[in-house]
Design goal:
It contains 9 helices and 7 strands. It has a 7-stranded mixed sheet with strand order 3-2-1-4-6-5-7, sandwiched between helices. α1 packs across α2. The protein is elongated.
Length: 298
């Protein structure tokens, strides 16, 4: 062991000496080309810079080549294991809007600093012609939202507040503890998604086709969604589809609808926006079928 340690130290010293020697030679050469005399430590510094810059381009090129090779091999293996992993997504499910939804709908609205929109969102949710329970969870707002929500409570709407801002995942998990309905839907408070689409979202669940429905923003026009957001969601969806053999187009959608028993059986731990990734991954690992329906986005 001592001999091995001594040999390792000797090799390290030789490597350092060799590196310093090569750097000094390169530095002396560079300084002479610039018509400057070699200057010991300065030669080593200049030589090290020349060495790094000279090697940078080929190193980056080789790294990119290796990464491309590994990615190609990974995709090949995935296709051998699951040939349909990269198939285009299926045609979205579009249910006829039911005249009546006999089961009770629980709507969880996580809120953080949404003073300008939260009242209108609550009114739109209440206007949907379904038996419903509306659970508003204020996640430590500081812009007056908490005070404004004091006026919103009634027979349908219940408001819960957190003294501290934890995150969207924590707010949804808090709301789930108060759910009494048969079906749960998550509704953002920023007016980007329209509650009038609830009948279409709950349609596949009502028909017994699935226990989970996602509202996809990418089946229709996406002019209101930035290119960066579209790219990020496409990459996230691709990763999800490769990992879990799914065909989702919008993993990060705010419109997620669940059978209450399905979502309550899952041990969720998310605090922030990672809720979307956690709940999707755990649903797919449990063998749940997630159907998507197109939704508008404003």
């Amino acid at each position: 062991q001592q001999a091995g340690a001594g040999l390792a130290i000797l090799c390290a010293l030789l490597a350092v000496a060799g590196g310093l020697g090569v750097s000094m030679l390169l530095g002396d050469w560079a300084l002479r080309r610039w018509q400057l005399p070699p200057m010991g430590p300065l030669s080593v510094l200049v030589g090290a810079i020349v060495w790094v810059c000279g090697a940078l381009v080929p190193i980056v090129g080789w790294l990119l080549g290796l990464l491309s090779l590994f990615a190609s091999l990974g995709i090949t293996v995935q296709l051998l294991i699951h040939p349909r992993a990269f198939d285009p997504p299926p045609v979205p499910v579009v249910e006829d809007e039911p005249e009546a939804f006999e089961e009770k709908l629980s709507v969880i609205i996580p809120v953080y600093n949404e003073l300008s929109t939260v009242h209108e969102v609550i009114e739109r949710v209440k206007a949907v012609p379904m038996e419903k329970q509306v659970i508003v969870v204020d996640d430590g707002s500081t812009d007056g939202t908490r005070e404004a929500l004091v006026q919103e409570g009634d027979d349908v709407v219940t408001v819960y507040t957190s003294p501290t801002n934890f995150g969207k995942g924590a707010a949804i998990r808090m709301g789930l503890t108060f759910v009494t309905g048969d079906v749960v839907i998550v509704q953002d408070a920023d007016l980007e998604l329209d509650p009038e689409e609830y009948p279409r979202l709950v349609g596949p669940i009502r028909a017994g086709k699935t226990n989970v429905v996602y509202g996809s923003r990418f089946f229709g026009p996406t002019e209101g969604i930035s290119a960066r957001t579209r790219l990020a969601n496409r990459l996230l969806a691709m990763w999800c589809n490769v990992l879990y053999r799914s065909h989702l187009t919008d993993v990060s959608t705010a419109y997620k609808v669940f059978r209450t028993g399905t979502i309550k059986r899952m041990p969720l731990r998310s605090i922030g926006f990672e809720f979307c990734a956690e709940v999707t991954g755990k649903l797919l690992r449990r063998g749940e079928r997630i159907l998507e329906v197109p939704v508008g986005y404003h």
